[in-house]
Amino acid sequence: MLKDITLGQYFPGTTPAHRLDPRTKLILVVLYIIALFAAESFVSYGLMALTLCLCVAVSKVPPKSLIKGLKPVLFILIFTALLNVFYTPGRILWQWWIFRVTIEGIFTAFFMALRISLLIMGTFLMTYTTSPIMLTDGMESLMNPLKKLHVPVHELAMMMSIALRFIPTLIEETDKIMSAQKARGADFETGSLLQRAKAMVPLLVPLFISAFRRADELAVAMECRCYHGGEGRTKLKVLRYRGIDYTAFSLGALILAGVIVLARFGL
Amino acid sequence: MEPIIQVENLTHTYGAGTPFQRSAIAGVSFQLQQGEFLGVIGHTGSGKSTLIQHLNGLLKPTAGRVLFHGRDIWADPKRIREVRFRVGLVFQYPEYQLFEETAAKDIAFGPKNMGLDDTEIQRRVEEAASFAGLSPDLLDKSPFDLSGGQKRRVAIAGVIAMRPEVLILDEPSAGLDPAGRSELLQNIRDYHARTGGTVVLVSHSMDEIAENVQRILVLSRSGVVMSGTPHEVFSRAEELEAVGLSVPQITKVAMELRRRGVDIDPAVYTVEDLRRSLLALRGGGAGA
Description:
- The structure holds two protein chains of two kinds.
- By secondary structure, chain A is mainly alpha-helical.
- Chain A has eleven helices and two strands, in the order αααααββαααααα.
- Chain A has two domains: about 1-130 and about 240-265, no CATH class; about 145-225, no CATH class.
- Chain A has helices at about 15-20, 20-40, 40-60, 65-70, 75-85, 105-130, 130-145, 155-185, 195-200, 200-225, 245-265, and strands at about 90-95, 100.
- By secondary structure, chain B is α/β, with parallel strands linked by helices.
- Chain B contains twelve helices and ten strands.
- The interface of A and B includes residues 176, 180, 184 and 206 of A.
């Protein structure tokens, strides 16, 4: 069922990974991605993988659901790996027609696949341990300096939290409409591509209508409560860095520095 | 006689293996007889909707079996679609599933999926519309131009048009005004009387259940707590209240009368019954 998809799902908890300030987690994820792209060797990739494993262990998120998150990008992962295997110049290991496998290619492919997997799992770990509201709060706060450049930061954050808030609602709605049409014999699973696309009509029409209806209702409800944008609006939960955040920052910076130093020594 | 649907030890767990895991129903067993009008009642979250979605194979049991004409409906997963045509399910707020350009086309969606020919579909659309209390002039309108009550009738007709052997309705009258509500329930009663089909009515309104059904199944905390004729069920008023349900208003009046010393059966559940028993009392009194 659709309800079972894990993409970006939040696992509530009280572990140190959950208690970190969302801004800390956002920055650390960015640092982690930078470090991933700086890494060039088994040692530094090992360090990156170890970091992720430790974070997962601390967060108590079931590793199974993190790996499940890789499923949607499996195709891209294999595709990039194959491209790298065949199109990296170097010592030729095996050749047939235009396909050439090189030793360098195999290494690059492996590292590329590992890099993408770690990147995705690292990002997912953040969304698994941070509620969507905290996440948008953190982003709004981090983007605050852009307000001076007349970027509508609050509006963007509001749009994002509304979008995130309605994903589960829409999924539930899709499930319901799907069941209702299935009860009348609709078949979403079999048939040719064209038949399946046609079978989506009884699902999409009611879904769009209800999405528009919900948007309208939400707008009215917000206006009834005198919503007029971010000006002078206070927060229920004010974000504050605490000791745990500084510790996390220090560890993150240390790992990044370590990877860069390793790269300099060609490791 | 063999029951048309037999539920054996049915259990369903949502989100197994995630932190949100919970049992919606656990160990439910009951039988549905051919031609019966069954009421399923329970407070919000008692598993009513989960239970009925098992009867036509929309949900697969975590444990237990659902037998339709004595055959496990999941014995051959390829034939589950056929079960859905024979056990018609009308969801809560079914008007949100409408999608076609005209009401008639929407009602024809089910029969079309069954692979019937055009004349048969036409016949069934007209028949179903009349059962659902839709006037023929509405059939050519867009479903989105109809009123809320009319939309719901279109959706119900869409299921009746498949001529299911069992018709299940989940809260068919929710959100309608009192007149629309009693009209719709009258339509359902007429449908049951005229076709002799099996009907299951799910509701959390005791009054609605009391006035319509022949047998009641009471669900609470994901299991069946009571089952029997309305008279049997409503005579156990204290137990009903203990699980967060109440008896019909008329039964409350009768219970209060009895408490104040009027000698009547407290388990009456329609206005007509109470009137009759009060008149009998007066008649008896006058005769003495």
